[in-house]
Amino acid sequence: MASWKQLGRKTIYDTKFLRLYEDTVQLPDGKVFDDYSIVNTNDGVIIVATDENGNVLMFDEYKYPIDQDILVFPAGGVEPGESPLIAAARELLEETGYESSDIELVGQCYDYPSKVQHLDHIVRIKNAKKTSGITHEATEAIGSLQLIPVSDLNNYWKDGKFKASYMISALAYAFPEQLAN
Q1: What is the pTM (predicted TM-score) of this model?
Q2: Which of 31, 141, 157, 166 is at 20 to 30 A from 2, Cα to Cα?
Q3: DSSP of 103-163, one letter per residue?
């Protein structure tokens, strides 16, 4: 399939966490668009972690853009030069106080590749143990940690408790059998 050609890029907004561009692009048929918007955010990690008893670590977190608390896995940004596995271990420790050396990258996916340049790295951590306190960032409004049996995930999914598409993607990579039927 033929790709689009970038003819120019104008930076509209640029911060540590988000960049907004207006690109001029040429389509394969030669048509030119001078206002194709692109959002770029740092890559992230979604951590599907289980403790030594096989319970999944999740919590409710307030999400300002939708003004709701939603059930989520630990997650966060990958710092420049940081590997997704290191970022996942760091975020898990910060958000839950749990650690483990049993860590594996199980998948990667884009949230909305038509407009957003952001790659989620889905990391599976097993046999996590509580080793320290929690150190949330100022912008994180994280509720109490919930230890949910893996066998309950299918019911949570069927009951619509997962409101973020990245939760379903992470579940599909980590526990595909839990999304059946």
Answers
A1: 0.89
A2: 166
A3: EEEEEEEES-TTTEE-EEEEEEEEEEEE-S-----TT--EEEEEEEEGGGHHHHHHTT---
